[in-house]
Amino acid sequence: MRIAIAGDGVAGLHLALRLRQLGVEATLFGARSPEDVRRGRALNFVARSGSTRRREALLGVDFWTAPDTLAETRTVTVHGPEPLSFRADPHPAYSMVDFRLYLPALVEEYVARGGRHVVTELTARTVRGLADDHDLVVVAGGRAAGELFPRDPRCSPFDAPQRVLCGGLYRGIAEDVPRSIEFHAVPGVGEVLRMPFVCADGRVDVLGLEAVPGGPLEAVCRTPYDRDPDRFHAAVLGALRRHVPGLRERIDEREFRLNGPGDLVQGGVVPVVRRAWRALAEGTWAFALGDAWCVNDPVTAQGANLASYCALEFAEAVAAGPPFDEAFCRAAEERMRPYAESVAQWTAAFVRPPTPQLLELFRAAAADPAVAAAFAANFDDPPAMWRSIATPERTAAFLDGVRGRSAAPASGVSGERRTRPWAGLPTRPL
Ligand SMILES: Cc1cc2nc3c(=O)[nH]c(=O)nc-3n(C[C@H](O)[C@H](O)[C@H](O)COP(=O)(O)OP(=O)(O)OC[C@H]3O[C@@H](n4cnc5c(N)ncnc54)[C@H](O)[C@@H]3O)c2cc1C
């Protein structure tokens, strides 16, 4: 079996590492060397979930376990006319490491294990050329590479970004709760996220602004940094003062600054789900993985975690052996689709004005720590999350289920189970 993996982000790397463990030869192609990635601009700020960390342990690349790299708590605050707030802690903790450290380390590990990594900038033509000497070409080159595959209109309701993003690594922000992710939803305005992060310069904070297009935060998100850093910093502080004053109060204005000019991501992504496969040449098929298949707004922090999930699922399908034909591609896509569609639908629900049932769930979480804990657990279980918010009936059933569990008599139920209702939920298959 000769497998080409075109793209060395988290999707391509987790696939390559798993295939190697399963004894399948694969060549991994990437546009930049590990050193170039380390020196380059930030392209994202990824919080990696407990499930992704479990997959990393399986792959033998769980390199980041120091307390500084972990986020153990999460606070959710809804601002506006009906403000509410609750703790929705992730169990296990999220890992918060700059992909400019993470991805090069995984590439080097893959090479150290005997894997082949080729640094070359692929084009649509050279990807087609890979069909000449490979049995299967996996396209894992991110959003732009996805254009090789047809859009699935049934699952792609948007044709423009639903948020204008301005995320960066900052200094001068103090945490309310140690090692916590803060998520603020400001109806009609957007979302503000703060989370601890480790980059090459050490511990910093991610501050992510997600502006509703046309809303009051959009101009701030579009403020250029390079031309006038002071103006940029003042615009960000002004927005925080107006929309999330509690967070603004924890910022020391004298210390507050972007960590470096390359530590800022501005723009927007168009959420899209594609058909995951296409013919490349007579008898050779291309399969899309990660953002090349399914792009989501970062608001739910799912894209890289979904890419990792799909990579390990797809590796099992490949390891089962050829033929890598259309039927193989259809079956592999079907295997990953329920999880990916849950992410897409949940994320779409979060960028739309909140439904009554979502507000109901937030109110219930603010009033009842057991509901907050179950909601927190669902962040790492997209099908369960989508089930809990898809319709008013499903939200009611979710709340009844949680309340029933937390009210259950102690006999036969461990204390762990009663105080951590997520403990009974199904774990993701690896
Ligand atoms: C601001 C922001 C914050 C985010 N936060 C989170 C989060 O908290 N949690 C989460 O799970 N997700 C998050 N995401 C989403 C996440 O970054 C993506 O979903 C994830 O990186 C997709 O991985 P991938 O491997 O499919 O693609 P990519 O990360 O895009 O990797 C593609 C790889 O292919 C290479 N490549 C591209 N083109 C070529 C070419 N022509 N030739 C050769 N190689 C090529 C690239 O160099 C790169 O290494 C965030 C995204 C953004 C923008």
Automatic annotation (TrEMBL):
SUPFAM superfamilies: FAD/NAD(P)-binding domain (SSF51905)
Matching Pfam families: Smoa_sbd
Annotated region (Disordered), positions in chain: 405-430
Domain Styrene monooxygenase StyA putative substrate binding: 143-250
Molecular function terms from GO: monooxygenase activity
Highest taxon listed in the record's lineage: Bacteria
Cross-referenced InterPro entries: FAD/NAD-bd_sf, StyA_sbd
Alphabetically ordered keywords of this record: Monooxygenase, Oxidoreductase
Name of the protein in question: Monooxygenase
Taxonomy of the source species: Bacteria, Bacillati, Actinomycetota, Actinomycetes, Kitasatosporales
